[in-house]
Amino acid sequence: MALVSEAIPTLSHRRGELKDFSSYDEKRDSTSIVKDVSSDLEGNSESEFAPEETDDVVKDAGDIATQILHTDDDPSLPALTFRFWFLGIGLSMFGSVLSEIYWWKPQNATVSSLFQLIISYVLGNAMAKLIPTKGYFKYLNPGPFNIKEHTCIVIFSSTASTNADAIAIIATLDLFYGVTLNPGIAIFQTLASQLLGYGFAGILRVLLVFPTYALFPGTVPQVNLLQSMHTGNYLSKKKMRFFWIVFTAIFCWEIVPTWMFPLLTAFSVVCLADRGQHDFVRNLFGGGSSNEGFGLFSFGFDWTLITQGAPLYWPLQTQISSYLGMAGGYVLLTVAYYSNLWGGKEMGLPWMSTSLFYANGTTYDQTAILNDQQEFDPEKYAQVGQPWLTTSYALSLLCYNLAVGASFSHVLVWHWPELKTAFSGFKFLKNADDIDDPHFQKMRVYKEVPQWWYIGILLGSFGVACGTLYTHTVFLPGWSLVIFVIISFIVTTFLGFVTAVTGFSQPTEGLIQLIAAYIHPGEPVANMYARLYGYSTGYQALYLLQDLKLGQYCKIPPRATFTAQVSGTIVGAIMNYVLMKTIIAAHRDDLVNPIGTRLWSGWQAQATNTQAVTWGALAKQMYSPGATYFWVPMAILIGFIAPFIFFGLHKLFGHKTGIFKYILVPVLTTYLGYLPYSVNGQWWTCFVIGIASQWWARTRRPRWFKKYNYLMSAALDGGTQIIYFILNFAVFGASGNGVNFPTWWGNPSPTGGLSVDRCKSTSS
After folding, report:
1. How confident is the model at residue 27 (pLDDT cuts 50, 70, 90)?
2. Which family does it belong to (predicted)?
3. Using CA atoms, how far apart are residues 539 and 533, in angstroms rounded to an integer?
């Protein structure tokens, strides 16, 4: 889309008024609906009952907030009903279990909130019809299932379904350090780190939720679907039929690429032609298996993977920046490896892996350089020697650090007016009466959550964090906790702008772990906990800010949103821990394997451990001036300078071209190093779909785009998530032993020397 970063609260608000078509005959089959959709694609409507519409192209955040999302509200609708509590708790447990399973998968899948949205809609309506409404039953069933309780259920369950980073650290301690935390300490530690982020989100909501420029593109498909489900006019019913057609189609289709025909997860003509002969072809063109290759010219047909690129709802500016970065990554990463940068090729290190290695290519044993207190031992290190990173992973860390530095300066140069306004007189700590966002103005009828509630949660969770650190083992001293919590708040403020405007969340753990390396040298476990409280709490705040925006779009009373988020955090922490222990007990060998398997992989825990060891224990040996990977931390400074260059070019040539403003440097540099992780067979499909949606449909077929684009995204995500959950327990081994589909040409045997895309296997 056009420059979302230009969206400000003064944008005009254009929207055709919806009409009541409840009397219109609904007895129409799916064929007629497809015809209606096709006619909309051509820019016309065959139905004389269609509401007034315009052919205005959606250009910015203000257009999305008013032309695609309506501002209607009924303050009399209840939110915290029995249905909310019953379905909220149930779906929170369900989603948190699923998110923990996904965390140990090679595909890096996540639980979409659209997943819970669809299930809660079906179950909520069923409860509204089946539970009596008379007498005392009216407290269980206050009437039709409404948008407010539905949205609260989504916020409740999606908060629980965000895998807690504290669990990643607890799992890493178990897998790689032999340290098992007391269950109570582990759960309270998880709660504390997440609720700290919630305190941040509440304090910053005046700056990063209320205004129009804070679009949070990821919420748009959800709100579009919620409003379609609960608006009783013909247009919404027609849109819902379209939704269920797409939902059913993807539900049936996903069985094929994920289980029966995995070749379709990464269809590569180059791999098929090579027939598994050459490492170079696999490295550059393969992308169907964990840590296989970069997936150049590989097209995937598995929406579980495609949706990672958010092609239907990320702004075009964000997508173009990511694709440019990825294109540069193909060249940079390949040239670096084959020119033997850092000796990776000569030592025979894997093409892709987040683990540490000896110079002979075998897995590095970090316990051999640590003492009984899990601290660096110089004498042991002298005997063992330096660990090595794969070339692709080291460059990826360097690019991520470029992006971290660029994120701060990008916000400074492009969003200085908003920062200045918000922090002048600490306006962000007050309610902003002058915000003219139409959705925010509708929220003025509800009681706002007092700022002291959020400050109380912040202080309380800080106290719990201190208690858990000192009760079991002193992993991080209290004074250090204070430092990293303050740093986290500052980082959240800056990166919150990038996320709110572009939908992209910039990882900043490299910066935090660099700081921790100087504060706690030689202590990998302390470094992990510094990352938890200096980075993960802020990242959690971004998720919560997005949910607060969802609540604003759907006109949820702020105190109901507050209740839903806190409740979801508590349920999620408990269930994440239980599942983590179960999975580690059943698949420990697969999780510590540097490559992993097609079904289970510990690559995220391995990355957590690798960063902790390299930054925490060996920062001086690996990242100091003159050391092998010195340019990895130096990239933060270089990245900080880059946006100033683009800003200067924009000032000089902006009247001729807007290209320099169109490039988001933090996004571009992140995707420059985005490829060396897990499965990569889907990115070219993302590119095609993203251009078709956010350029062609948006500019050439604006009516269709406004009606169906975000709804299609919701349908595809929802159908995929549900069938993927079923397959995980039915055939992928989440409930015990897996059931492999019979081996055939489209599903090569893992022991036959071929990956699923018929490239040469990484184990051959």
Report:
1. very low
2. Belongs to the oligopeptide OPT transporter family.
3. 10
Query: Would you say the C-alpha torsion 424, 425, 427, 429 has a positive or negative sign?
Result: positive
User: What is the spatial distance between Cα 649 and Cα 375, in angstroms, rounded to a whole number?
Assistant: 48
- On whether the CB atoms of residues 503 and 218 are closer than 8 A, the answer is yes
pLDDT of residue 474: 64
Q: For 99-125, what is each residue's pLDDT tens digit?
A: 888 788 776 667 777 778 888 888 899
Beta strands in 467-604 (DSSP E): none
Q: 713's torsion region: left (phi>0), alpha (psi -120 to 50) or beta?
A: alpha
CB atoms near residue 379 (< 10 Å) = 9
DSSP state for residue 234 in the 8-state scheme: H
Residue 91 lies in a domain: no
The tally of domains found in the chain comes to 1
Residue 502 confidence (pLDDT) above 80: no
Structural domain boundaries enclosing 681: 253-389+674-731
Could you tell me the CA-to-CA distances from 533 to 23, 191, 462, 538 in Å, in that order? 56, 12, 10, 8
Tokens of residue 543, six digits: 């998720």
And the tokens for 625? 């001036």
**Residue 754 main-chain phi, psi, to 5 deg:** -125, 145
Q: What is the pLDDT of residues 215-269, one digit of tens each?
A: 888 888 888 888 888 876 656 778 878 888 999 999 999 999 988 998 998 898 9
DSSP 429: G
pLDDT at position 26 is 36
Q: Read out DSSP for 460-477?
A: HHHHHHHHHHHHS--SS-
Angle (CA) 102 105 109, round 5°: 50
- Rounded Cα–Cα distance for residues 18 and 23 (Å): 14
Mean pLDDT value of segment 262-277: 89
Instruction: Please check the confidence at residue 657 and state whether its pLDDT lies above 50.
Output: yes
Give which of 249, 101, 102, 302 is closest to 757, Cα–Cα: 302
What's residue 258's pLDDT?
87
DSSP 8-state assignment for residue 344: T
Lowest mean pLDDT among 160-169, 568-577, 595-604, 714-723: 595-604
How many whole angstroms separate alpha carbon 542 and alpha carbon 33?
A: 38
Residue 276 lies in a domain: yes
For residue 363, the cross-strand partners are: 357
The answer to whether 170 and 581 have CB atoms below 8 angstroms apart is no
What is d(CA 200, CA 362) in angstroms, rounded to the nearest whole number?
43
Please name the helix (run of DSSP H) or strand (run of DSSP E) that holds residue 30, with its range, or none.
Answer: helix 30-41
Please give the C-alpha separations between residue 564 and each of 206, 210, 225, 741, in angstroms, as whole numbers.
Answer: 19, 19, 20, 41
pLDDT of residue 45: 41
Q: Report how far residue 152's alpha carbon sits from residue 493's, in angstroms, rounded to the nearest whole number.
A: 25
Residues 429-438 as b or e (16 or more Cβ within 10 Å = b): eeebeebebb
Q: Is residue 714 one of the residues assigned to a domain?
A: yes
Are 84 and 154 spatial neighbours (Cβ–Cβ below 8 Å)? no
Instruction: Identify whether 695 is part of a domain.
Output: yes
Task: Looking at 301-444, list the stretches that DSSP marks H as alpha helix, in order from N- to C-terminal side.
Answer: 303-306, 316-338, 378-384, 391-414, 416-423, 438-442
